[in-house]
Amino acid sequence: MPAQTTVQKIIARAAGRPHVDVGAYVDVRPDYVCFQELYWPIHKANLARIGATRVVAPDRIVMVIDHTTARAMGSIHHETHHDLERFTREHGIRNFFKAGTGLRHLVLTENGFARPGTLIFSDEGNIASIGAVGALNIPISTEVFVGLVRDTNWVQVPETVRIRLDGQLPRGSTARDLIQRILADMTRSGALLQACVEFHGPGTGGLTLDDRQTVLASLFHSGAYTGLMEMDDRAWTYVRERAAGPVFDDRSDPDAEIRSEFAYDLSGIEPMVTPPPEMDAAVPVSEVAGRRIDQATIGSCANNRLDDMRAAAWVLRGRRVAPHVALYVTPGSRSIYAEAAKEGLLTVFAEAGATVLAPGCTTCWGYQGVLSAGERLISTQQFNYHGRNGSREAEVYLAGPAVVAASAVAGEICNPLSLDAPVSEGAA
Amino acid sequence: MPEIRGKVWKFGDHISGDDGIIDFEIVRAGFGKEPDEAALRAMCFRRLRPEFAANVRDGDIVVGGRNFAHHNHIEVSAALKASGIAAVIADSCDSGFIRRALNFGLPVISCRGITAFVEDNEVIGVDPAEGIIARHDGEQLTFPPFSTRMLDIWRAGGIVPLLREELKMEVSDADHR
After folding, report:
1. Are strands A119-122 and A32-36 parallel, antiparallel or unpaired?
2. What is the CA angle B43-B109-B135, rounded to 5?
3. Interface probe, candidates B34, B66, B149, chain A, greatest A C-beta count within 10 A
4. Global pTM?
5. pLDDT digits (tens, 9 = 90+) for A324-343
6. CATH of the domain spanning B4-176
7. Where are the domains of chain A?
């Protein structure tokens, strides 16, 4: 049999074939179809238009309310919450997760839906974060409604680009800094366009599972189609504790056809900031340090896991958020929220003067933390274009959780390593 | 015989979808609404080929260069479909564009070398089932053929008409059981 990459093997299995060619269009049966609530009114209209009366494979549907975290006054979304609760009950969709559970990304990994070798159709490219546990995200946008009435759909087998990681991140740098570096280097050239990016090499071993999800969640800004991270003992341990079904040890054959290969030395990664409005314009934090900020937010599928909470707390312990700054911290799921509480991280945030929000997308799309004209935000969120968080005349800078927390303390964009020493316990 | 035969409208590299094939203003004004076909047809390619809307004929083919229609909301596909375009062939494009267009019944084919292979105004044949693009002199380019499901969607005129027909058949099958 011809040599294949990991993504070829996953798609081949979902297509019921021993082998699929790169570039081929193939019909596949996904393990799950996963989506969120914001487009539900459009899905519902499409279901009515096609005369759908039943859901074909309810156990393969994973529906998550994550963009809105409560039935709040003054929006249409509380009706959607009500409607989805009824729809999923009537159609026997057991994998329905109500507001406050967390993001789809984490619902998929924490419940063992995303596991090595699974193919998941979802509504967003950032769900490639599940590649950290060997699962393949295929983003199909609003076409997810098709999954309610058909258990197959088509996919084109992407080319693979391999990125080798060596070394370890230096103190003060995070996985977000690495992916900002990669986006700055590889977006304009189109080097990753439409590819499945496979990270491998000794450097991946030094990244925690949370770090790996951060890298994969922001990869799509480069034009990459999806991504995977080489599985190791740490990833397998996580998977074995939760797998909700069979797992497969897929890996690229050494002689499989790939488009290209790149390498990064993690020890050279410094704290980065991406100024508005382009996603590939990251610069070292020193180039924008000193710009006054009004708001700082930590959360979103890029940086809402326990290690991100720890990185923020590492900076905030014994320090205070500047008086003119609002800092919002959003854990990505209820279980991360609970873990952060057990570790005392929520206490650190509260004592520093930060506000902890309910698990969900929250500040990333301006659902909370809305900006007015002339305000400046530094955030771990996914986008920095004009108007993402409210006024088009506001500015959004992107950075990792340590830089965001340090900037909240300083009241201006700041490298965590250049903050003054924290106030010791009991000091005035 | 290829299933599609039409006259080529040829465009260059890196043509934006939302800010090139159409103007983004129509997307912003239309969120959550059905696409306005007449307005999209009038707007289609107006800043690149002002004569397009008046001269395009049902069955014509759009050929684009690399990264064609990048950044495209569904209105881009709707505009091409409403203009009567039978197929789009590009040196490269993103798979999201292929999905969105196909869901409107419009085949988009990513085929390296197409802009060097055909001239503006030339008549060519396209066969998504066989993966062949044919010039009048008999020369051919090949691309990966569409899957069975993709052909079903295309021939039904889009995902909604296809599913509507399939579900109607299922209901009548159940009635006769």
Report:
1. parallel
2. 100
3. B149
4. 0.93
5. 999 999 999 999 999 999 99
6. 3.20.19.10
7. 8-16+24-157, 158-244+254-270, 272-418
